[in-house]
């Protein structure tokens, strides 16, 4: 603003008080409207902008999936406009390719671009493998999960009920992207053919399949018109069940029909599956998962889904119930309660300080009204910029900062009012004129300092908008909310506070200091005078304190961010890759029984393998164990959550064949979706040869195992899956006139079965699968004896045209940037991540990397490194912006640089607070230091401005410093106290999410304390020395 504009703006607000207060009412209504439709989440959506291409092809091993499906899709997706990363995983029967786009690319445009590229690759993908796109959802999209329970209903019955009734009704809920089914058995009709009877009747396998497909048809014959009536003609030839299937005619021998029942047995059976769900050590069950559409309000969608489940429950068969085991809205509600409690407690403390210093109820209430009104401004800003209400966007608001401008304005009103004549004339118009004559100059007197002081606080947050990646998504919402609220508070301080004060404050009164404050002022002035007499000693002590504090930084641990306590534990389990699903279920049941012995545990649910809609790439040897806990206040063992995890790790460590990794549900999904790694630290080994990758990964594992603090150390599974390989002898095959497709048909029928058609039962579709008896595929010898009918009618044993051998094959093959990758991952306990990785990197020199192979560090450490590198640029930028504003304010480089000295003074308290509370230096603490800069600098501005005004009025340098420090002591203490107390509830809270807020709040409180103390003592000393030196130099030159 140009000179005088802000003063004219404030004066106009006082002249048009009714208009201003009407505008405040409109602002409040707009804020309430914005709040009403504001999405509520536990945490900001930290997921990168990605599209997942899922391709399922049952029967193909990981190497075939990699070569025939993953590579064609990956190469087609390379170079997609806006794509930043392509990574993939190939497993038995599954290819999952993830394309990460720049955040600026709209999600539906990204999906369209991926679809176009995938269509180009379809001709290179095997027939029957159909690439599909994953749900339009984020890492936090799995908002609600439940079990379909019912002791009297089999898991097949429950899964059928869920798939064709519950799932469809839940998918219709607004905001739901998909409903996924996990576990249970999918119903099929199995046509189990007898090879001997096929041979007796001279029927081939293909004939059976074709007969079933050809006898399951409906058709239309058009319509008939007779007189005034039209009748449609419909032919119904659909199969309805086993009896119809058995009666299908395959062929005829000498006029006698050969039916399916003559060569096969028809029975109901399960589809081969890649996953299962168990609970509480009681065996298998069925689970459902509600996946929320990206961009929706998690709390609202969750509430709607739960209402629909209540409706569905009333229509389910007797004994079948839907039992929740994961509800993300619980985390949302608990974190929201923490934020709400902290904001309310902080506002109460700030209002108490205001009343304590102002000693005027009306004045205090006017200033206090800025708190809710500025929050409504924050809600408007959040709505405009698409920010949800969550722990980060609302968790860093300090009402002490928000009311600073209003406090300065009101303090001046109270002082000027006390100096005025308390007697007002009876005429209303004359009283109004006198009030305006009093309050207008008082408001104009402090309008410009308020403007620049608040602008400095806002400017501190501006560099946060330059943060990128995960840290940007985490803290940009906070910066938007805080800047919106503070900007609203600035407008209110310059308009609404003067307008309301001129109407509501009583005139007259006495302006006096409390006796306790007079004694405090006298003691302070004695210490300041002593410090100014011993300037070198004072500066030496200050420099020493700052140096010790900065030097002690290397003894404070570092990490990316403290983990949000979700109130539950997720244990990732891993067994041998060659394990069967039945054995994996048995082991998971024993794990659940062990976990349930802990009294803190209320429920245990394990998800094995992957669900029907392959949103996960887990194998049947992998499991996610959801451990729900009783409220911690009810625990009787004396353990906290970390202690419980240690006890669980020790107990599970004694279980052979099971490796575990401890995390939390939302944290696991975020880590997996964002980086593809589910751990604190990951070492990614890149190269082409699988044997070399495994050897290098083993070397890396050995190094990490010797680093203190390592926990849950695992090497990503690569090999270990068991396979029967059938090497075709093409010469023998040609001799019998056979081709590879003939062998494939027999093997598919023997092992997995061949789908012939579907039986429709209402909305249900039940596959009809033709397969050989179990005994013909029990072992290699049985498979070798399977016969293939040659064109000449000869029966050729499979073992004659193919060599059947058992071998090991890769279980999973991961790519990043189209290059093979193997991950060694671990968590860190009892130590900070930064020092752990630093030691590990030093030790990693013993791992010799061949040409073409290299390591890359990932996991949380990767986020930490990127964030700290960015902060190394952001923090100097903040200081540069502050310095520029200080120069504009003072038009003096010396004094602007002098006030910047408050920053290292603030660092002392912030660092000390981290050390005393045993907290690590993380992103939350770093943002706390940035916020602290504004408060620290503001104190210096208040003090130096007062000294400059006294010098301009004719006081000498030394006298002006003492008088200015004395006059502004209350303002400095009041500003510092409200800023610190506003963060106290966050610093001491133990509610859900408090661990994320605690470092930021602790840094600000500690920094405000030391910067205030050092500002009041050291800053005047340095000011006097600099000014004396400057004028002495000027005299010598002049």
In oligomeric terms, what are we looking at? single chain
CATH topology heading of the domain at 513-555 and 892-1038: Multidrug efflux transporter AcrB transmembrane fold
What is the CATH class designation of the domain at 513-555 and 892-1038?
Mainly Alpha
Coarse structural class: alpha+beta
Q: Topology of this structure?
A:
Elements lengths: L4 H11 L1 H20 L12 E8 L5 H16 L5 E9 L2 E8 L5 H15 L10 E2 L8 E8 L5 H17 L4 E8 L3 E7 L1 H7 L3 H10 L2 E10 L2 E9 L4 H5 L2 E5 L2 E4 H4 E7 L4 E5 L4 E9 L5 H18 L5 E7 H31 L2 H24 L6 H4 L4 H4 L1 H16 L8 H34 L7 H26 L1 H9 L10 H19 L1 H17 L16 E7 L6 H16 L4 E9 L12 E8 L11 H13 L5 E5 L1 H11 L5 E6 L3 H16 L4 E6 L5 E8 L1 H6 L4 H12 L2 E8 L2 E8 L8 H5 L2 E3 L5 E3 H4 E8 L2 E5 L2 E10 L4 H11 L10 E6 H31 L2 H8 L1 H16 L5 H30 L4 H11 L1 H20 L5 H44 L1
Parallel strand pairs: 7-24
Antiparallel strand pairs: 1-3, 1-4, 2-3, 2-28, 5-14, 5-15, 6-14, 7-12, 8-9, 10-11, 13-14, 13-17, 16-18, 16-19, 17-18, 20-29, 20-30, 21-29, 22-27, 23-24, 25-26, 28-29
Helix pairs in contact: 1-16, 1-18, 2-12, 3-4, 10-11, 11-12, 11-35, 12-17, 12-18, 15-16, 15-17, 16-17, 16-18, 16-30, 16-33, 19-36, 20-32, 20-36, 30-31, 30-33, 31-36, 32-33, 32-36, 33-34, 33-35, 33-36, 34-36, 35-36
Keywords:
1038 residues, alpha+beta, Multidrug efflux transporter AcrB transmembrane fold, Alpha-Beta Plaits, Multidrug efflux transporter AcrB TolC docking domain, DN and DC subdomains, nine-stranded antiparallel beta sheet, CusA-like, Cation efflux system protein CzcA, xenobiotic transmembrane transporter activity
